[in-house]
Write a structure and sequence with these properties.
six-stranded parallel β-sheet, 13 strands, Rossmann fold, seven-stranded parallel β-sheet, binds uridine-5'-diphosphate, 373 residues, binds uridine-diphosphate-N-acetylglucosamine, alpha/beta, single chain
């Protein structure tokens, strides 16, 4: 079996690394049955700064991409269209048996569209995630990707139910768990050795961790200013570490908001080991990131999500995730409630979510091998 894997942006690398590791394990495993899997990794180049791309190859010990498309930043249509045109060239030459795309970024949709039009089957990892908010580019991307994919690898019962409601045949849906948990489990030990807390001058349990990058939250001055003023209120009770995404950093500068209160510790984006270490030691997390919500749930760290709609409904049921609204109206109260309760120990991952256990990539490889046999 010959597979082409597509990666593009920061959160994609955490989803691709465990898959490659599981494929390598299958290929080299003694007594492993079934054909070997030949793979090729294609990086679209949607994210390109060292801190948004290369650092993750190092932290996750991920093989270098076989092909780099160099797409870069642009409008949605430009970015998606450019990635499609470049992927098509690669696929015409490589003619793989399967294309694997992960998540919901523009390059995932581009990879899936380019493949399906060449009659190459597509596997979508993190299929079936729905917020109902078609104003989010990601919602459009995941809906379209799911409907042209042959294998839909889902994270929870909610994803399966939504896909079935949309008329996707049950035989295409495979509930395998959340692959972000695989990377977390893989890197957790080395993350424990990161000196990021010292570098930022914070102590375990003595800070909150913030990330923000959704265009709806950070692209308009007044909105971003309001969110930051509510964060500042919280930071009077506990310092807030804020590694900002490049989109956010650029907007903070543009809007003259790049000098927050001294209780907000603003940094450039961090590598994965440093970020995991910060999540492990945080009293709570404030975020609009899909991946950070997953990691908080797996680590058992309370998560206050700066959105109006849940992305991972299962984390609101069992994973300590709470929506505080995209205007952060519920933030202060929710943060105060956490600060009043006894801090939890961060000694080991505590996910009680079924299949978010670090073995999702193995399950995906098993499904693909079974289908190929
Ligand atoms: C993209 C995804 C989003 C995902 C996020 C993960 C889409 C539509 N959006 O959003 O779903 O949650 O990645 O981080 O696919 N930039 C840099 N350096 C980089 C990359 C980006 O400076 O290496 C800046 C550029 O100014 C660029 C802006 O960030 O215009 C936005 O980048 P882009 O990839 O278009 O969208 P993200 O906001 O990163
Ligand atoms: N992340 C990181 N450094 C940072 C911020 C995030 O390594 O400074 C990691 C985070 O731990 C998670 C992933 O990036 O694994 C989430 O990516 P992001 O928030 O950019 O995208 P989303 O998951 O929302 O699509």
């Amino acid at each position: 079996m010959r597979i082409t894997l597509v990666a593009a942006t920061r959160p994609n690398f955490m989803k691709i690394a465990p898959l490659i590791r599981a494929i390598d394990k299958h290929n080299t495993g003694t007594g492993s049955s079934g054909a070997k899997i030949e793979y090729m990794l294609v990086h679209s180049g949607q994210h390109y700064d060292y801190q948004m791309s290369q650092v993750f190859f190092e932290d996750l010990e991920l093989v270098k991409p076989d092909i780099h498309l160099g797409v870069g930043s642009g409008t949605h249509a430009w970015q998606t269209g450019s990635a499609m045109m470049e992927f098509e060239k690669v696929l015409l030459k490589a003619r793989p048996d399967l294309v694997v795309v992960v998540g919901d970024v523009n390059s995932a949709l581009a990879g899936a569209l380019a493949a399906v039009k060449l009659h190459i089957p597509v596997a979508h990892v993190e299929a079936g995630v729905r917020t109902g908010d078609m104003g989010m580019a990601e919602e459009v991307n995941r809906l379209l990707t799911d409907h042209i994919s042959h294998y839909l690898f889902t994270t929870s019962k909610y994803d399966d139910a939504d896909l079935k409601k949309e008329g996707i045949p049950a035989g295409r849906i495979h509930r395998v768990g959340n692959i972000m948990a695989d990377s977390l489990v893989m890197v957790r030990e080395s993350a424990g050795r990161s000196d990021v807390l010292n570098r930022l001058g914070v102590k375990d349990g003595g800070y909150a961790l913030l990330t923000l990058h959704r265009p709806a939250n950070v692209d308009e001055r007044e909105k971003l200013k309001m969110i930051l003023s509510r964060i500042e209120e919280v930071s009077r009770s506990i310092p807030v570490v804020f590694p900002a995404h490049p989109r956010t950093l650029k907007n903070l500068l543009k809007f003259g908001l790049d000098k927050p209160a001294s209780t907000i510790i603003l940094t450039t984006p961090l590598g994965y080991r440093d970020m995991l270490r910060l999540e492990m030691g945080a009293r709570f997390v404030i975020t609009d990131s899909g991946g950070v919500q997953v990691e908080a749930a797996v680590l058992g760290v309370p998560c206050l999500t700066v959105m109006d709609y849940p992305v991972w409904r299962i984390t609101h049921e069992t994973g300590g995730n709470k929506l505080v609204g995209s205007d952060c109206a519920g933030l202060e109260k929710a943060a105060a409630r956490i600060l009043k309760s006894p801090p939890q120990s961060q000694s080991k991952p505590k996910s009680s979510i079924p299949l978010w256990d670090g073995h999702t990539a193995d399950r995906i490889v098993s499904v693909l091998l079974k289908a190929a046999s």
